[in-house]
Amino acid sequence: MIEETIITRAIIETYLKELLDSVESDVIIGGAGPSGLCAGYYLAKKGYKTILFERALKPGGGMPGGGIMFNRIVVQPEGKSILDEFGIRYHEYKPDYYVADSLEATACLTDKAIKAGLRIYNLISIEDVIIRDIGVTGVVINWSSVEIAKLHIDPVSFQSKIVIDATGHPSEIVHIVERKSGGKLLTPSGRIEGEKSMWAEVAERMTIQNTKEVFPNLYVTGMSANAVFGGPRMGPIFGGMLLSGKKVAEMVTQKL
Ligand code: 48F
């Protein structure tokens, strides 16, 4: 016999128990694209309590869509070791250009990150941050459905030692901090430099260079790093995203 009310209780009770335990954490990541998932995997694997809020229904960000909806991604040789780490299969298309299935890549990243201990909360948007004297100390969240419907419902806050902006092209968390801190970012101008037009080779290199602390206790990874520090976009080549996620996890580990 199947009791509907037990199903209801199982879902609500287990979700809320974990959510309550996530109110304070070591690291909060905004965005479950490739860089956020990769960062979350390496941090959770090290034993840090790592929470990820994702606005969308499903994780993956720009990865599952591949290039122009063709579900393939390209990765350069430097990214191969991360594909191996996550069990993502690939083949050499031409020397130094590896092709993988973008759905398999998304599934493997998500699977390994969750199994390493990353807590992913989908359908939740980060709409503000908490800033104290020491820098960023957490985020303010609301249901994405509330945001989309433009309902007047107050959000709640979650505290962490570190926040990582992995929100991709719009670099949403850094935009909030720029606006609310009066432009005191650790960028050359103190403000967001802005993303430049496509140049895959330079962009891939710069994504890793630009993976940094951009305000005390706030780091940028992936496309957000390039948008904040003035790097170009790169299109459907993904090695830089994965390497940036790994790098930010290493930087945060050193700081913690
Ligand atoms: O855009 P996205 O995949 O970011 P990424 O990890 O990777 C970029 C590539 O996909 C691609 C590219 C190159 O290869 O240029 O675009 O840097 O994932 C960002 C995720 O953040 C979520 C959004 O729904 C997406 O899944 N997101 C954005 N803003 C918020 C957010 C927010 N305020 N709160 C929660 N999630």
TrEMBL record:
Pathway: Cofactor biosynthesis; thiamine diphosphate biosynthesis
Gene this protein is translated from: thi4
Name of the protein described by the UniProt record: Thiamine thiazole synthase
Residues holding glycine: 233
HAMAP family: Thi4
GO terms of biological process kind: thiamine biosynthetic process; thiamine diphosphate biosynthetic process; thiazole biosynthetic process
Role played: Involved in the biosynthesis of the thiazole moiety of thiamine. Catalyzes the conversion of NAD and glycine to adenosine diphosphate 5-(2-hydroxyethyl)-4-methylthiazole-2-carboxylate (ADT), an adenylated thiazole intermediate, using free sulfide as a source of sulfur.
Subunit structure of this chain's protein: Homooctamer; tetramer of dimers.
Residues holding Fe cation: 154, 169
NCBIfam families: sulfide-dependent adenosine diphosphate thiazole synthase
Species in which this protein is naturally found: candidate division WOR-3 bacterium RBG_13_43_14
PANTHER family linked: THIAMINE THIAZOLE SYNTHASE
Binding site for NAD(+): 35, 54-55, 62, 126, 152-154, 223
EC number: 2.4.2.59
